[in-house]
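Usage

Read records sequentially. Each one opens with the input sequence:
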Amino acid sequence: MGSSGFDQLDHANDSAVYGTLTVGTTAVELKVGGSALENRKVVTIQPKANKVYWGYDSSVTTLTGTQVFKDQFIPLPVGPEITVYLIADGSGKDVRIGELA
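and closes with the structure output:
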């Protein structure tokens, strides 16, 4: 363990990217840019419009996904091999997202 008391693998300390993802009625992958951040440890979700839903594959729906409410901030500890998808109950929902490695 380092002087902070955390093992280097316990938290993101390498790089981070963020952006806005437009979510609609078709599931979209949560990623900033063309691919997941290399060595990713965490993704973040914050809908700025109405609620959205997340799940671990592209078949997620508003009935099967986990709900995230407007302005709610959710960090998920997932690596680059785990894919997170977002879907909304309408079109054009802006969601702030982030990836940390």
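Summary fields computed downstream for this record:
- The chain has no helices and eight strands.
- The chain has a mean pLDDT of 90.
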